[in-house]
Amino acid sequence: MSSSSTFYIMTCPDRAPQACDTSAQLLESYLRLCAAGMLRGSGSSPSPTRKRLILVVVRDFEVEEVSKDDVSAAFQEDFGALWARMTKPSRYATSRYSELFHLEYAFMPSALLRKVDFMRRVGELQRRFLDPTADGYLFQRETSGTDGSIRYACPVPIADLELHAQNVFKALRQLVKDRSIDQHDSELGSDGSAELEAAVQMRRNQ
Length: 206
What we know:
Blueprint: E1 2-3, E2 5-11, H1 17-35, E3 52-59, H2 68-85, H3 97-100, E4 101-107, H4 115-130, E5 153-154, H5 158-205
Parallel strand pairs: 2-3, 3-4
Antiparallel strand pairs: 1-5
């Protein structure tokens, strides 16, 4: 079974543009894999029972400095803007991110200033992945549907796991290749046009 949870780590109160760019690339790759049918369980259209989880881990959080609601609102604003400017497959062009993802937040205190509290919170978060009896266990079975599917998980039969991993890896390599080509074309479009025009003018003057 492969997890369908997605993790975003944000150090409060920093909101670095580089982190946003990385997140956009990850989400774009994920959506293209879904649109290509490379990820089991994605279905033919967004479905509430198949939403993925984006677990936002907020580091160095101190409630005396900023409230959880303020941090959550700031992230949702940034994420909404990121989603709006992302390059999405046509299948998801008009989709809102709330149709595809659940957002959840884990607030962590400073590991240096409050080491004991930090380790306690790490343990609580770890149990949500490993202990079926823990509050907020991530892989509990759905009770609202009829299929009893496991929430935030994509079951892949053991017999198909190797082929599934190979296909996903090949698709990711192609995505990286396509992105490199797009970047190269963009650079040619911005710089190469002047060079081409100069070369043509030189030929005319010969």
